[in-house]
Write a structure and sequence with these properties.
about 650 residues, alpha+beta, Immunoglobulin-like, 3 domains, five-stranded mixed β-sheet, 16 strands, elongated
Length: about 650
């Protein structure tokens, strides 16, 4: 076998191994809140509706860069199925394993390259963080391509590497902020190879790097223009209390040995259901640690050229995260996984070299790679026991949103239970805000392939939604019990079983919508507002009233644009002299969910017994802190502004 053939076989083997490991049970991948928000923005971009300058909002309150959306827009051009999109992410990460193999093969050697590739392909934490629509799960392939470009560019003197490094590096680092911890590593490689710098390719690389950063720079500038104190406010809240523990070491220990995936997948569950024997865990930790120690010894002796790069790759980021952040999480260390893979590779090479003097090359390789396979197989068995439990059992969300959520398999079954031809879908759950509530966010994404207008049922019991025609109602396990108790008969109903302890999804089909009864029928509404809502009637009974509105299609359902159509409705009870005797301001049904023909019945929730007039109007809150608002006009028959409210006499006319 020629060296070229051996290289091609090894490369194909590690990529295939990585792909298989990531595609196992792919139908059970998570599709929770962050995934839904990223997917929503990616769908908008894929459909040509937006070109985002920022991603979803980060946990600290600053918008993420948009590159995570740009990546996800690619599969969403072809499909809206989260399972297929996740397979795309798995493919990216399998290719990333191939890139690591290529780096190690070119600059280290065949044995450590093969060992590093195998480890990164199947070690449980690397697999766990490479198969979800979550930014940190597809950052690594871009960083590895950038690293390859840096090495070939400044160590090998290749023009293409010097041209490609900066744009690819800056693109990848914007996907998740943890990637920025590798800047010193890239800077060191460039500095060491500075004598090989070619000015034209590097100048083009700088220009492309600026272009890659430009969208986020524009988006962040826009954010700070609208909210100048955003970064200062975030900085004042950061650096929270730490308990003094060195969390980085705990996370790094788990990531490098492959054990304790239940600490993230099922942190709120008693470990008994998936605990594997202590001797098995001890064996995994012992063998993995021995290989890491052997690899570290090789770096300190035979492979000293890799000492500084690995220090910059592993130690410096861990120290920065530990000192500089209030909270750290395991996924912050995803960029360090290839570095640990290289250390494992050096360790396997050390075992192979030691045994080669006593055994044949084949037997030495068998023992060395057997020592690598043993902990990987044992760790994989433990990992699969955890995942199989998570696929079939409800797991409450723990700190930091860890805990496995509803598998896509179940969500896709719900999608399949909705008959063709249904134009209205209502989702009943425990929330109705895209930015905060998971079911409000994910069902418009999952049902984007249909023609249905998808919106959540208002959670405020004072607001009732009435669709114009036949509708499907998805009742999530989180729907309040009082809503379930109030469900009437359905034309058809089906149940999709959730995980054990999670509850079931119901899909109910209603043929004839239950419209509110109006005191009079008229071809013209009482008032039409400039936000396209129309007041149809005020129904008063026993001193209390309900206002009935109709709405048109939402002018904007996009992730950020829809915020411009969130309105407040106000009701002012006035006496005969025009004095305000009672008032209620409340959130109106979010404008991003309006569907043509929908009617909204809203409980005024005021005692109108002594009132002569009810004043009704809308406004938008522009700045909650300063109280700045924007009034909504009432339109006359010609469509011109005619005031900011309408007064309704309460004399029974």
């Amino acid at each position: 076998m020629t060296p070229r053939t051996a290289n091609m076989i090894a490369l194909a083997a590690v990529i295939a191994l990585a792909l298989i490991a990531r595609l196992v049970d792919i139908q059970n991948v998570e599709f929770f809140h962050d995934e839904a928000m990223v997917a929503m923005m990616a769908q908008e971009m894929a459909d040509g509706l937006t070109f985002p300058l920022q991603g979803i909002l980060s946990s600290v309150g600053i918008p993420n860069p948009p590159t995570s959306i740009y990546v996800m827009a690619v599969p969403y051009v072809f499909t809206n199925n989260p399972v297929v999109v996740t397979a795309f992410i798995a493919l990216l990460n399998a290719a990333g394993v191939g890139v690591l193999w290529a780096i190690a093969r070119r600059w280290i050697g065949y044995v450590p390259a093969l060992a590093a590739g195998i480890w990164l392909a199947v070690t449980p934490w690397a697999v766990l963080y490479s198969r979800k629509i979550w930014a940190q799960d597809y950052m690594l392939p871009f960083l590895l391509v950038a690293l390859a470009a840096a090495l070939w560019g400044w160590k090998g003197g290749r023009r293409w590497g010097q041209l490609a490094m900066l744009p690819v590096m800056l693109f990848g680092m914007q996907i998740h902020f943890a990637g920025w911890a590798l800047v010193p590593l890239f800077a060191w490689i460039v500095w060491r190879g500075r004598s090989r710098t070619r000015l034209l390719p590097f100048a083009v690389s700088i220009a492309l790097g600026v272009a890659v950063m430009l969208p986020y720079a524009l988006g962040l500038t826009q954010t700070l223009r609208d909210d100048p104190t955003r970064i200062a406010d975030v900085a004042s809240r950061s650096g929270g209390d730490r308990d003094g523990s060195v969390e980085s070491l705990a996370y790094i220990s788990r990531l490098t040995t492959g054990v304790a995936t239940e600490s993230w997948v099922a942190p709120t569950v008693d470990p008994a259901p998936f605990a594997h024997p202590a001797v098995e865990t001890a064996a995994v930790v012992a063998i993995s640690t021995a290989l890491l120690v052997a690899g570290t010894g090789a770096v300190l002796t035979r492979r000293r050229v890799w000492l500084i790069p690995l220090l910059l790759w592993i130690v410096l980021p861990a120290a920065v995260f530990e000192i500089g952040l209030a909270d750290v999480w395991p996924h912050y260390y995803v960029p360090q996984l290839p570095a640990f893979a290289l250390l494992i590779g050096f360790g396997v090479e050390t075992v192979y070299r030691t045994l080669s003097s006593r055994l044949t090359a084949r037997n030495a390789a068998f023992v060395a790679f057997g020592g690598l396979a043993a902990p990987l197989i044992l760790a994989w068995i433990g990992f699969q026991s955890v995942m199989q439990y998570a696929y079939t059992n409800y797991i409450p969300i723990g700190e930091g949103t860890s805990g496995y959520t509803t598998p896509s398999r179940i969500l896709n079954e719900v999608v399949g239970a909705i008959p063709d031809g249904i134009d209205d879908v209502i989702v009943a759950s425990d929330g109705d805000r895209v930015w905060f509530d998971v079911d409000a966010a994910r069902w418009p994404v999952l049902l984007r392939d249909t023609t249905a207008c998808v919106r959540p049922r208002p959670v405020d019991p004072r607001i009732q939604l009435h669709p114009a025609g036949p509708s499907a109602l998805i009742v999530a396990p989180t729907a309040p019990q009082e809503f379930r108790d109030a469900l009437g008969p359905a034309l058809d109903s089906s149940v999709v079983a959730g995980r054990i302890g999670e509850g079931d999804y119901q899909v109910r089909i209603a043929d004839t919508p239950a419209q509110p009864s109006l005191p009079r029928q008229s071809d013209t509404p009482i008032a039409v507002f400039s936000n396209s809502a129309a007041l149809l009637a005020l129904v008063v009974q026993d001193g209390y009233g309900s206002a009935v509105f109709s709405v048109s299609n939402s002018p904007d359902r996009t992730f950020y644009g829809g915020l411009d159509y969130d309105y407040q409705v106000f009701f002012h009870a006035l006496d005969a002299a025009g004095n305000r005797i009672a008032q209620r301001d409340a959130s109106f049904y979010p404008g991003r969910y309006w569907c043509a023909g929908d009617m909204l019945s809203i409980n005024v929730d005021l005692d109108l017994t002594d009132a002569a007039v009810l004043r009704v109007g809308f406004y938008r809150i522009l700045d909650a802190e300063t109280g700045e608002i924007q009034a909504v006009d009432v339109l006359d028959v010609a469509g011109n502004a005619a005031g900011n409210w309408v007064d309704l006499p309460l004399n029974g006319d």
